[in-house]
Each structure stands twice: as C-alpha cells, then as structure tokens.
Amino acid sequence: MTDPAMTRRSPSASTALLKTETRLFLRNPVALFMALGFPAALLLLQGLLIPGTRTPLNGPGSPTALDLFVPMALCVVAASVGLTNLPSTLGGYRQLGLFRRLGATPAGAHRVLTAQLVVSAASLLLGAAVAAGIAVLALGAQAPRLPFAAVGIFLLAALSMLALGAVIGARTKSAQAANGLGTLALFASLFFAGVWTPGPLMPEPFASMAAFTPLGAATESLTAAWYGDPVDPLPLAVMAVWTGGCALLAVRLFRWR
C-alpha cells in the first residue's frame, strides 16, 4: 500500500518533466546563446564597438542610436527563442520518437509539450531581462517611459513568436529541419523588424509589409511605449491576429509522430 505522505512528497509527472526540460535547456549551449547571448551580443556590439551609438542624436537629453535599438533587441529575444529554440526542440523530440513513447505512458505526450513551452517562455523572459539590464545599467540606455505598456506589448510579441515557432515545429521531422526553417523565419523577421535596415531606410514595398509582420509590429509598438509616444492599436491587432491564427494552426497541424 502506498504511503500517502510519500505520495504527497513525490513530484508530479508535470513537475518532473518541467525539471528535466529545464536541465536540458541549461545543458544546450546553442539554446542558451539564442536566449541570453545573441540579443546581449547585439547590444554590446552596438554600444561598445560602433562609434557614435551612445551620442545623443539631437543634443543633450535626446535619444541615442543605442536607445532606439533597445526595443528592437528585446524583440530579437522573443524571435530567437520562439523561432529557433522551440521548433528545433519539438522537431528533435519527434525525430527521437519521444512524443510517441510518452503517449503510451501515464505521463502523456502533452505534458512534455507543455513543459517545453513553459521553459521557452521562461528563457525568453530571462533573456529580455538580461538584455534590458545590460542596455540600461551597463550601457546607459534610457529606461521605458511607459513601463507597463512596454511589458504588455513585449508579452504579446513573445506570444506571437512562440505561436509562430509552434507552427514551424508542428510537423518538422527532425531538429535540423526545424532549425533550418526557424532560422529562415528568424532572419526574415529581423529584416522586417529593421535590425538590418532601419525602418525609415527600408525600401518599398518592404516598409509597408513590415507593419503586418509580427516582429515588425512588435518593434513599432514597443518603441512607441519605450519613448512615451501614443501606441497605435493597429500593430497590437496585427500581433493578436498572428498569435491567435498561429496557435490554432499549430494545434491543427501538430503531429505526435
């Protein structure tokens, strides 16, 4: 007969899987870099190696080029985790038959999927905190003028990237295939977000298209909130549509085998 006290002390299947997923993430140098290192490296490159990025653009007190890059760097965190880490993990688990094997156990395959989503979301939030801390505390960038709006916009951006990444990982049969597709989506998203070509310098029709991509809309909204400007509801609606649409599509397309 099972001791009730032992049952209470033993971790649930969900908790055990969450701990396992966390350990696997911490042992994966590529995933750690994409979540924590890549956005921080972009900020440090801008702030320390490129001349003039920390000089006010329009006199004392005005934003610097680095200030304008900070909201974009936070969006990069969401994209790098959502479009590379999450899909490659899902593809790798499908390749190894992990979903199939867990589906035949009381733990259930859905629990490892939930655990992976939780770990991805947590690493994304940690990466954003690291990037924002480096920007504000180490490089002297401006803090957000509308902090609550900025946090809300970032969370919506994160959801849209995780949902898009879930679509990529819904059917890919290997980690390599998922990583390849995710990397293509990442670099396309970074382009439309203005990482490679700033929005005002982006040629038409790409500039018009950028506002209707999830990361382009996220960058526009987060930049407005960061500097206290009115937030246009259209980019928020764009992110919400991408989030809902991709989430539904991922559920419909997801293959356990």
Automatic annotation (TrEMBL):
Membrane topology value: Multi-pass membrane protein
Annotated source species: Arthrobacter gallicola
Name of the protein described by the UniProt record: ABC transporter permease
Superkingdom classification of source: Bacteria
A Pfam family hit: ABC2_membrane
Keywords attached to this entry: Antibiotic resistance, Membrane, Transmembrane, Transmembrane helix
Domain ABC-2 type transporter transmembrane span(s) in chain numbering: 16-225
Record localization: Membrane
Positions of transmembrane segments: 30-49, 69-91, 112-140, 146-170, 177-196, 234-254
This protein's record includes keyword GTP-binding: no
